[in-house]
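[step 3/7] inverse_fold.run input=structure_tokens len=80
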């Protein structure tokens, strides 16, 4: 069930006010490059975010990263 909720949360990020105006531009530029451009864009984003998530989830605890550290770093980056 966690996978379903995670997937739905990812879909909800598409309607984020910061992402929604950029989405048509990114899709149009990908489509103008190749007819399979939007699929390649989606596949690239999927592989990138999945790989990064798995890397942090598997190596993070080994080097002492905890959820609090990642959350605080994300908050600092958003403020910057």
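[step 3/7] decode complete -> sequence:
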């Amino acid at each position: 069930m966690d996978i379903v909720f995670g997937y739905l949360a990812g879909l909800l990020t598409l309607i984020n006010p910061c992402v929604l105006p950029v989405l048509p531009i990114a899709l149009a530029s990908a489509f103008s490059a190749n007819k399979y451009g939007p699929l390649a864009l989606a596949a690239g984003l999927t592989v990138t975010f999945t790989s990064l998530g798995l890397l942090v989830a598997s190596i993070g605890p080994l080097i002492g990263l905890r959820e609090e550290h990642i959350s605080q770093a994300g908050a600092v980056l958003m403020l910057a």
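[step 4/7] annotate
The CA atoms of residues 9 and 62 lie 27 Å apart.
The radius of gyration is 16 Å.
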